Amino acid sequence: MEIIISNSSDIPIYEQIKEQIKVKIVSNELKENELLPSIRTLAKDLRCSVITTKNAYEELVKEGYVKNVPSKGFYVAKINKDVAIEEQLSKIQQLIDKAIAIAKMNNIDKKNLSEMLNILYEEEK
Amino acid sequence: MENILEIKNLCKKYDNFELKNVSFTLPKGMIMGFIGENGAGKTTTIKAILDIIKSYSGEIKIFGLDNRKDDEKIKEDIGVVLDDMFFPEILTPNDINNTMQGIYKNWDTKMFNDYLKEFSLLPNKQIKTFSKGMRKKLEIATAISHHPKLLILDEPTSGLDPVARAEVIQIFQNFIEKDDCSIILSSHITADLEHIADYITFINNGEIVLSKITNELLDKYGIVKCTEKEFKDINKKDYVKYKKSKYEYEVLIPNKKEFKTKYNISIIDKITLDDLMVLMIKGEE
Amino acid sequence: MIGFIKKDLAMIKSNFKLLAVLIVVYAIMGLMDKMDISFILPFMCVMIMISSFSYENYNKWDAYSISLPNGRKNSVKSKYITTILMTLIVSIITIILSFIISYVNTQTINYEKILVTMFGTIFGTLLVLTIMYPIIYKFGVEKARIGIFLLVFGIVIIGSLLANFVNLSSILKSLAFLEDYLIIILIIVAIIMVYGSYKISEKIFNKKEF
Predict the structure, then answer these.
(1) DSSP-derived pairing of the beta strands B241-244 and B207-213
(2) The complex's ipTM?
(3) Residue from the list A47, A49, A55 with its beta carbon closest to the beta carbon of B31
(4) Does chain B reach chain A with at least 3 CB pairs under 8 Å?
(5) Mind spelling out the 3-state secondary structure of chain A?
(6) Are residues B195 and A7, on separate chains, in Cβ contact within 8 Å?
(7) pLDDT band at residue C19 using 50, 70 and 90 as cut-offs
(8) What is the sign, positive or negative, of the torsion defined by CA atoms of C97, C103, C105, C110?
(9) pLDDT at position B1, please?
(10) Which of A39, B129, C116, C171 has the largest CB neighbor count within 10 A?
């Protein structure tokens, strides 16, 4: 499992860990009922504090991606893929909303905007 | 959460230095970074915890027990690395092993020997033949081979080069991965602590300036860089300290998010523990 | 407790070679009937114990030992136990050598002289050490060193002068009324001396700030 942390990012480290594990769960890289590394092991391997990994796991539990089996560890929970993807879509929608707002403010038309989206989408590949 | 270490109103007076009402707590399973300048009171506090200095006032509880009344019981479960204090250097790692077998009930000879191998320390060589880094590793192996529940480490990385420092920190992280151990680790090299410490306690001139969860500190606090005119507009309640330099004002703020909603100053930098220390010590209120 | 004694013994084991050399020198000198240097072994014993203190001071062992379970109590206690052990070992060696030397030189065994040597050895060593330890615990080896040096030399020289010029047997005779109890008296005095010194050192160590 790869988790890449940036220390200079403005996003708190626990959130970076949380988001990356989430992506791995949604993309099925981490499968249902798979045992995740313990809080301490993850902290050691990522060279971060125990509280950081603990926070990340706690949030994942709260959001339903991970379940905590006391005295055994953290397992990937059964997730509703649709709900998970829905959540990601709503995030995308929020960002596009922002883009549209900026476009409208500057009189950039729809055609221009969707062209830009097309080009960027292809480039990312 | 259960507290491993509780210090309340610790005071100690010397001719030229004083600990003033030092109080903080270390919850179970956590690593606390204890930072401050040289001479700020880190070692004195640690010596008081271990009862190495006498005649201090205040209350120190370890594992919920009084550090003086239950001295013997507590020390079975404490491991220490102290700055400059150790076994006489004409002894060998083997001598240390023999000695510790007769001192700690839980002394683990196999574990100690495994560490000697891992750190490439020859068991029959006198300590004085070891380099500074090797000596520190030996001190660490000695401190953890009885499976302590609390590690008290005074400047365990001082005088080491960056590679050796990273190794030492890694040893502690490996150790707490297996043993459920809490750590208080003092250092004036804050970069070592920024990542691995769950809590940061900052002591300056014998007084605790702050004791907080590291993430909250690093995520919430920030440094605003601005002009004199902009600085004049900032309410005193919204910053902790500031420093004026030739070209700019550096202002330490306790809450980045809140600050952004109130003011329209664009440069808010992330903070490092070093910045925090410097501004806290050198900055004006 | 056992751990602390093991440490103290480990500290002095590096001196065993030197001790062995001195035993040989002592034996040869004695056998050649040149000079009675029976004081050399106790003198060495004192020096070894002092040097172990100075190594400990250098690495601040005393402060470190307090971080160990029962450190404050056992640090001092083990020092005294090791000292008594060392004194006994050195005394036994001296006695055995005295027997041999006495037998080889005169074909007889002078029990009285040997008994005096034995008690002289034990007493002298314990006296010096018991006076020194509280001083060392109070001031540290470095500061206490000069005082100690004078003390050791004084006692050793006076002791050997007494042994060489004063007719010890006449003194013993004048104390003849005590003769039956002499050994018991000496043992009691030694115990009181060591115990008193131990209590003082313990008190000093307990109050000490590091």
Answers:
(1) unpaired
(2) 0.87
(3) A49
(4) yes
(5) CCCCCCCCCCCCHHHHHHHHHHHHHHCCCCCCCCECCCHHHHHHHHCCCHHHHHHHHHHHHHCCCEEEECCCEEEECCCCHHHHHHHHHHHHHHHHHHHHHHHHHCCCCHHHHHHHHHHHHHHHC
(6) yes
(7) confident
(8) positive
(9) 61
(10) A39
Touching partners of B (3+ C-beta pairs < 8 Å): A, C
Mind telling me how many Å the CA of B97 is from chain C's nearest CA? 9
Domain assignments of chain A as residue spans, ordered by start: 13-76, 81-124
Inter-chain CB proximity B86 and C60 less than 8 Å: yes
Query: Confidence band (pLDDT; 50, 70, 90) for C178?
Result: low
Q: Which of residues 6-35 of C touch B (CB under 8 A)?
A: 6-7, 10-11, 14
Residues 6+ apart with CB under 8 A from C65: C4, C71, C72, C74, C75
Q: What is the pTM of this model?
A: 0.82
Separation CA A113–CA A108 (nearest Å): 7
Q: Would you call C210 an interface residue with chain B, using a CB distance cutoff of 8 Å? A: yes
Strand partners, B249: B226, B244
For the stretch B4-54, pLDDT in tens is 999 999 999 998 899 999 999 999 889 999 999 888 999 999 999 999 998
**Domains located in chain B, CATH noted:** 3-213 (3.40.50.300), 221-282 (no CATH)
Full DSSP string of B211-278 = EEEHHHHHHH-EEEEE-HHHHHHS-GGG-SEEEE-SS-EEEEES-HHHHHHH-----EE---HHHHHH
The two three-digit tokens of residue A76, written as one number: 């990937």
Place of tokens 């004195």: B44
Q: Give the 3-state secondary structure of residue C206.
A: helix
Torsions phi, psi of C86, nearest 5? -60, -45
Q: Retrieve residue B91's tokens.
A: 């002894």
In this structure, CATH architecture of domain A13-76: Orthogonal Bundle (1.10)
A contacts of B173 (beta carbons < 8 Å): 43-44, 47
Considering only CB atoms, C67 lies closest to which of B78, B90, B100, namely: B78
C contact residues 169-208, partner B, Cβ 8 Å cutoff: 207-208
Q: Mark yes or no for CB contact B95/C7 under 8 Å.
A: yes
Distance from CA of B53 to the nearest CA of C (A): 5
- A 10 A CB-CB count for B109 gives 12
